[in-house]
Structure formats: structure tokens, C-alpha cells
User: Fold these one by one.
Assistant:
Number 1:
Amino acid sequence: MTNASNAIFDAPKAVPAQSSVVAREAAHFGAMAAQWWDPKGSSAMLHRLNPVRLGFVRAAVDAHWAGDGAGFTPLAGRSALDVGCGAGLLAEPLARLGATVTGVDAAPENIGAAAAHAAAMGLPIEYLAGGVEAIAGRTFDLVTSLEVIEHVADPAAFVAGLAKAIAPGGLLVVSTPNRTALSRLAMITLAEGVGMIPRGTHDWQRFLTPDELTAHLREAGLTVSPPAGLAFSPTRGFTLSDNTALDYFLTATRD
């Protein structure tokens, strides 16, 4: 366990040039690697968001594979890929749901933190440093990429990479902020302004609307479901909503 823990602080390895990776974005998130699992650290907002994200993914999995919503391991016997996995906040729950999990992240520091935490938890998760290109030629039953596409170099090419990673009959779940006045106010002016989210995390101009992301998914040959909104209430925290103005989920399938 000592050697695994030290992986967080190893000197980062260079990430090969890949079309989806923006170097400054990888560096920004890599700088937060040691705090990913601290619910009061720089990733505190993700910890607050994670239960809703997991609930949505679980519901999508049950709907796609006719699950009953009651079992503990609805992904048993299935493979899952989390692209932009950070230090494993989603990858680890996917493993506990029974999946054989691979996580990919552009920041090698995050991969070090993720591998160390998974080892401490006894979870056999495969972690790879790089962009979506790192899993080229491989396919998975479930592919997730949550709050990631707004940070990549070319959204259309990134979606094409995600689509190629979906096995026939598989499921894709993506989420991202919407490009609206509300998201600019809430996520940048307020959240980054007061330090709830590290300053410089978001570039509002790179947010995608549901129509734009749906078009990319369809161009990649996927069948797309209507978006589900993600809202925030000061009293209830993050909740699923019909309102997509702040943030939203999309699911897509490959026939």
C-alpha cells in the first residue's frame, strides 16, 4: 500500500500527442490529483455531484439492459470505460456495480492517484493515461464521459472516439454544462469566483448545447435519447430536472 500511495507523487510522464487532449487542461486537472478524494478539497463539487451522476447512470443501465433496479451488481459480466476518469470517482462505483472497468485520463497525475486509491480499496481497475485514443481498437459495453467534452480539443472527433469504443448493443452516457447565461453565472461567475470550483476550470465558450452534442452523436452513428437536466438547489443540492439550462445528460446507443 505504501508503494501505491507514492504513485500520486511520482513525476508525471509525458502524454503522447493525441488529438483530443488539450495540454493546459490536462495540467490544470493534474495539479489537483492529490485532492481528488478529499470531499472538502478542490474536487468538493464533484463529490456533491457524484450521487446524482451515479443515480442517472444506474437508471440508464437498468433501462438499457432491463434491470430491476434492485440488484447490487447490474453490470456483472459487462465491461465499462470511463473517459476523463480523474482519480476514479465514477470508475470505482462502476466496479462495485460489477463491471470490469477501464479508466482513461489525460493527466498522468490523476492516473497515479486513481490507481493508488483503487489498490487501497481492493478494486482491480485498469487505468491508462491519455485521451480517448488510448483505447483505440477496444470496445466496451458501457462508456461514460461525464463533465469532460467541454475540455477536449475537438468535440466532434472526441465523440467519434467514444462511439468507436461502444460495443454493438452498448450504451454511452455523457454529461456536460449547457452554454447558457445560467451556466456562465452559476459555474464561472459564482462557483469559480468564490472558489467552490478552482478558478480557470471552465471556458464558457467551449460549452455545448444539447442540440450541438446530439448532432455530434448522431454524426458518429449513434441513436440518441432526449436530454435530462441537472439542476442545483441551495436546499436540495444537485437534482435531476427537466430543465437543461445548467447541465445535462445524454444517453446514446449503438445498434
Number 2:
Amino acid sequence: MKVSGADTAQTLSVEELSVHYGGVCAVSSIGFTVEPGRSVGIIGANGAGKTSTLRALMGLVPRSGGRIRLGERDLSKVKARDMVRHGIGYVPEGRHVFPGLSVEKNLLLGAYSRAWDKDTHQQLDEIYAMFPVLKEMRERLAGALSGGQQQMLAIGRALMTRPRLLVLDEPSMGLSPKLVGTILDVLLKLREEGLSLLLVEQNAKLTFGVTSHCIVMENGEVAMSGTSAVLSHDPRVREVYLGL
């Protein structure tokens, strides 16, 4: 998979990001960076604020404070629908494929922000090579796919945008161990090819296997951060946040 702009990718910087739902603070002034070609995970117990952080980053929920930059470009006021134009692909929790459209049309819709040309179809072939089952089912309605197949479709659709940064929210949710392994292999391949990744995931093995750095969230705040290798062996992380 060719990574668009991989040699000129820019650092994502999140500063003092906050999210409130009514009078409840879901995310409190957190900050982190994702450097070009690096992979960062956000872990923590249910309700820690992980998904709210990603949704606020993508502009899907209002931010009550904070600044988001990709390189020198300020994305703090960019609408959700325009994030893809700035090089950020998004795989949402729950997949959210278009059930009444075919697999192939779902994938092609991922390229809506650019011309459908020879390069688009070449990239489509690359997605099919990455997920052969999608090629076999290219004419099938997305709503008829299994959960695992829909997750592959959601990742493939996001990759059709040629992102510099791929943001994934719980990509292994509801999948069998075999399919989790497939997703792990794909993310590792993308990482090796230089694509920046930001991952929220309950599966500790997947998170630590894919990422180079992790942020541990608790009650909407960053409780700990460090390399994935170190945090994966930290007793507090394993017992308190991951239940291991």
C-alpha cells in the first residue's frame, strides 16, 4: 500500500483537548503527539475517555477546549467531513459501512475527495490484495457481510483516502481471535510502510503489538504514558487499567 505523502508526513499535535457532555467532563485538557511514521495507542478502562478523545479529534463531538495541529496547519476548527482532505483517515467504532451499497462502492466512496482515475483503481486493487475476501465479495451488499468482513471494509475505505494518519477506534471489537490476528497483521504492515497510526483498543495484545508508544487514560485524563514495551510490563497498567 503506497502511503500518500509518507516522506513529507507531519506531526499531529493535540494540546489541552477537553470534552464536556452537559456538565460532565469526559476529557480534561489532555495532550499528545503522533510523529510521522509512528504508532500511538490510547488505552484505559471503559469510560476513561478514549473514544471521546478520538471523536473530538475528528470533530464528531464539540471540543470545549484545546488545539489540534497537523504540522503547521491548525485543524481545531476544521469540520469532520473535511478532516480527510487534510490527510487523516478514520475507522470509527462500529464500522459504519453503507449497508445498502456494494463492497466496491463503499471502497470507492472512500476516495470521494479526489478524482476517480487510474490511481484510484490501482489503490482499489491494493486493498483487494490486502483483504482478498473483499475482492471475492466486491458485488455483495456491505450489510450482508460478517462483522469481521465489515471491519476490513471500514479499514479499506479509510485507506482509499490515502491518509498520512490513520485513526482507528476499537478495530478488534466483536471479532474472533483469528480475525483479530488478521487486523494485527494489516496494521503492522501499514506501520512498516510508514503510515502514522493512532489507535484506541481494548485488546491489550493488539495495542502493544502495533504501537510504539501508549497513553493510559483514567477519568478523562492522561494517567501514564511511555513506550509500549515498558507499559506492557508495568504492573499498575496490567492490573488496574487492563485487568490482566
Number 3:
Amino acid sequence: MFQTFKNLDHAFRQLRRITVLSITAGVLTAGMALTASYRYTLALQNRVYVLSDGKVLEAFATDRGENLPAEARDHIRTFHELLFGLDPDEKLIAANAARALYLADRSGKQVYDNLRESGYLYGIVSGNISQRVVIDSIEFDLRSRPFHFRFYGRELITRTSTVTTRSLVTEGWLRPVSRSENNPHGMLIENFAILDNRDLGVQNRSYEK
């Protein structure tokens, strides 16, 4: 009889040990599953799918501060190319200007209005002139908000017989705003001003037969 109780006690201990091991294994498995699921969810949150020309492209989201210098530089470059890159097509000029003005405040519109009211844009169209912006450098200070920047570049103005090189030095401030389809970097140029826009030289164009 005592042997029977001893066997029962031993069996109970084994059962308890197996139960504890099973519960521990279950808790560990559940914990690993939750951890893996959490990491996968974070990875999905940082993954962005972009539709371009009917194709789905995968991109990864990053913290804004990590990519701020590159985004600021591209915002400034895009604004200048849209506003000062001109071709003899009044509809194209107006369309590019409309896109540029989403990236700046009233000071950007004032520059465009001055070009239009002075007859400069009419001269571009009527004279079949093309104007291209060449970027030399962009300086900005990200230590305080809004961020001050200074743009150094040139305008290459192509006429039928000549190419005029003109300096283009501007400055302004960048203020962070909400991102949108028209303003993907989420920045707004404020107090934009042209500091230097003088002719640097004229080169004759040659047509070789």
C-alpha cells in the first residue's frame, strides 16, 4: 500500500513537472510570436508603396530628421527649376509656375508676377528663347527654424544666335508644413528674394554644316 502511494506521488510529480514545462514552453512561444508580430508590424508601417506609371514601387519611410538636408536641398532645387526654367510656351510656363507656387509663400508669387508684368515672360515666348537653370551650390542652416538658405546658380539663356549666362543668387527661409501631393517635402519657402541676377557673358552659337 505504501508502495502504491509512493508510485502515485512520483506520477503526480512527473505530471506537475510536465505541466509546468508545457506552460513555460507555451508562454515562451506566445512571447516569441508576439515579438515577431510586433517587429513585422513596425516593418510594414515603415514600408510605402508608390504608384508610378502604372507600376507599384516599394519605398521605406524614415524619420524626417534623418533626411532633412536632402529634402531641403531638393525642395529648393525644384522650386528654382520650375520658376526659372523657361521654354517658349506660355501654357508650360504657367503650369510650371503654378507647381512652383505651392512650394513658396506670396514672396514667390511676387517674383513670378514681376517677371510677367515686366514683359520678360512674353519676350521668352515671342523670341523663342529657352532658359535653363544650372545649380552651383545651396547653403542652408538647419540649426534654427525657419531654416535660412542661399542658392547659387546660373541661368543659361539660349537665343537663336547667342547663349547668355546670367548669375542667379537667391535667399529665403524654409518653414516645415504638412506634406501634400503638391508639396511632397512638406516645406514652404518664405521671404524669397533675388540677390543677384546680372549677365556674366555672351557666347555666339555656331551651326556647323
